[in-house]
C-alpha cells in the first residue's frame, strides 16, 4: 500500500526544505529528491525534532512533467500527493516551478513526527 501521501502530509509537504539534488535516473525509472531537512516545515516550533537530511525515492516512474526556474538555490514550497491521481506527486519550488511525477513505489526516511 502506498503510504507516501500520508507521510508527506504529516511532514507538511516538506515545506521550506532546501533541495540539495533531484536525480532522475531515466533507464532505471527512478527519481530522487534529496533534501537538507525533512522537518524544515516545523523549524522554530516545539515539535521540531532537529535537522534530518533525507531522500525521497520514487520508483517505477512512468511520467514526468518538469518546469523549474534555474536558480542557485531551490527550496521546496511543497511536495504533496496530486489531488487527482493517488499515484502521482507534485513538487512546487521556490523561487518558481514545479515537477509532477507518476510512480509505482516510494522509499523515504522514517519520521519522528
UniProtKB/TrEMBL annotation:
Q: Which domain of life is it from?
A: Bacteria
Q: What is this protein called?
A: Uncharacterized protein
Question: What species does this protein belong to?
Answer: Caenimonas koreensis DSM 17982
Amino acid at each position: 500500500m502506498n503510504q507516501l501521501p500520508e507521510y508527506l502530509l504529516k511532514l507538511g509537504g516538506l515545506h521550506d526544505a532546501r533541495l540539495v539534488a533531484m536525480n532522475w535516473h531515466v533507464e532505471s525509472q527512478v527519481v530522487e529528491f534529496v533534501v537538507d531537512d525533512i522537518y524544515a516545515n516545523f523549524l522554530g516550533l516545539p515539535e521540531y525534532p532537529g535537522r534530518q537530511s533525507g531522500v525521497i525515492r520514487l520508483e517505477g516512474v512512468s511520467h514526468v512533467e518538469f518546469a523549474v526556474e534555474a536558480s542557485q538555490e531551490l527550496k521546496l514550497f511543497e511536495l504533496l500527493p496530486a489531488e487527482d491521481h493517488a499515484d502521482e506527486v507534485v513538487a512546487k519550488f521556490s523561487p518558481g516551478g514545479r515537477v509532477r511525477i507518476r510512480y509505482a513505489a516510494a522509499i523515504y526516511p522514517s519520521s519522528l513526527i
